[in-house]
Amino acid sequence: MPLSAQGPRRRAALFWWPVCRVCLKRPEIPDERYGRCETCARSGRVPYRFRLASRPGGGLAVKAGELSPRALRQKLREPLLAFKGSPSTKQHLGLHELELITAKDRVESVRMAADLAAQSEAAMTALREAAERTDASW
Length: 138
Ligand SMILES: [Zn+2]
Fold this sequence. Notes:
Blueprint: E1 9-11, E2 16-18, H1 38-43, E3 45-54, E4 60-65, H2 69-82, E5 88-89, E6 97-103, E7 106-112, H3 120-130
Parallel strand pairs: 5-7
Antiparallel strand pairs: 1-2, 3-4, 3-6, 6-7
The protein binds zinc ion.
């Protein structure tokens, strides 16, 4: 299931203005690959969004993402294991959505939709488990 790569929309004076997916503040460069502003694009930060779902029998699992399981494993398996921060809650994410902000070869931050906040440990586990998979698609 493809996820929208579109930036969150915020009301500017007269328009709904797409804002940068990384900093959620500055305007997005039109048609920028990851929906970023100039500053975030220059700093090499890349956002990746995933959608989780409850797993039968308990816990959570990744159901869709902007990276395939294989690409997640190749790019982010080690950085995810090294990530020790705690996820933050963000309003711009939809139900069961989670977003990684990466910078160079590390995971800089993890953001979650409010509905995941109470299960943030399970969400991180689901992400790390997903990064062990070698499948081409979810
Ligand atoms: Zn930005």
